[in-house]
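Practice problem 4.
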């Protein structure tokens, strides 16, 4: 079970990338399936050829960001539909990832899988100490995820992050306010797929291999993590949503772990089980009864007895003050005259 938590934390990086595009930017990005495999292939080839594990992880991040750049360019500059542009890049990345893996071959070999046996990577010390899938490995990966989580929250709290939210909420209004929506989309897609590529690089090192089909269906994992996390933690605050995404990724991986231990399910049934889990999460998130229960249990729910800021001190000069017939009646302090009374006294 601890190993499942390890894998859940790694896929949390992918889920944060999906969160940026699907929830914040409102962009249906399927590049994830290809950019994850790009991250695994890039990191594996660098480590296989004797490169630094840290450099390999950063290279996976950069490779994923470049994939996001292409998707953003096709959408903003070539004016291709968001979904179609991401599908085109995802298909093209299959060939790109295959070519990357070929760099690990020799004597004319063209491998579709690269093994990292006896190669130094960021999890080597855990494997040698027999601590992979332990509390130590959870702490190690958890620290990395927390650092990335803090960076993502800081990024979204900047002026550019607010511009991204405005673009996702209402592109026309954001453009009217002087925000370059094309630029925000491209940068967000790069950051999103960069996180996905980094997750792929760590995944390859954790499992000790990389294959051309590593990213197949992982967009579903990201969506399930986002939906589960937001259903549990709500969407009142952005920082709470990002924490929910991480928790959702871990819960999703634990659900897969327990499903595999069931005598009724096989490894080949996991795609169907994943799709079913996402459908259930989507239905529950739209069910008003479940929403009310989450709101009631959440410690971050709005306080019912707290008055609205404008309701506590009414503005007597407001055009929305109460009108009774032809006379206007407003709330005011004792002895305080309205503009009409002040004029009559002056006369």
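Answer key:
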């Amino acid at each position: 079970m601890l190993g499942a938590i390890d894998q859940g934390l790694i896929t949390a990086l992918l889920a944060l990338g999906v969160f940026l595009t699907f929830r914040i930017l409102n962009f249906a990005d399927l590049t994830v399936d290809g950019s994850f495999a790009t991250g695994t292939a890039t990191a594996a080839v660098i480590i296989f050829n004797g490169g630094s594990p840290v450099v390999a992880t950063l290279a996976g991040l950069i490779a994923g960001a470049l994939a996001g750049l292409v998707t953003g360019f096709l959408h903003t500059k070539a004016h291709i539909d968001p979904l179609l542009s991401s599908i085109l890049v995802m298909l093209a990345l299959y060939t790109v990832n295959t070519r990357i893996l070929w760099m690990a071959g020799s004597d004319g070999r063209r491998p579709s899988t690269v093994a990292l046996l006896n190669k130094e990577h960021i999890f080597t010390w855990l494997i040698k100490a027999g601590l992979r899938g332990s509390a130590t490995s959870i702490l190690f990966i958890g620290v990395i995820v927390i650092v990335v989580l803090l960076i993502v929250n800081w990024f979204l709290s900047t002026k550019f992050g607010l511009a991204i939210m405005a673009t996702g909420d209402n592109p026309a209004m954001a453009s009217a306010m002087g925000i370059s929506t094309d630029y925000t989309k491209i940068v967000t897609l790069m950051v999103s797929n960069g996180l996905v590529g980094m997750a792929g690089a760590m995944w390859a090192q954790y499992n000790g291999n990389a294959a051309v089909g590593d990213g197949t269906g992982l967009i579903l994992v990201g969506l399930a993590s986002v939906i589960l996390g937001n259903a549990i933690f709500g969407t009142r605050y952005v920082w709470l949503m990002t924490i929910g995404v991480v928790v959702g990724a871990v819960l999703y991986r634990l659900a897969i772990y327990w499903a595999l231990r069931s005598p009724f399910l096989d490894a080949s049934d996991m795609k169907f089980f994943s799709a079913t889990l996402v459908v259930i999460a989507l239905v529950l998130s739209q069910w008003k009864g479940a929403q009310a229960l989450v709101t009631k249990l959440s410690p971050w729910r709005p306080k019912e007895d707290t008055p609205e800021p404008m309701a506590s001190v009414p503005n007597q000069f407001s055009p929305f003050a109460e009108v009774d017939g032809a006379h206007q009646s407003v709330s005011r302090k004792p002895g305080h005259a309205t503009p009409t009374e002040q004029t009559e006294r002056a006369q």
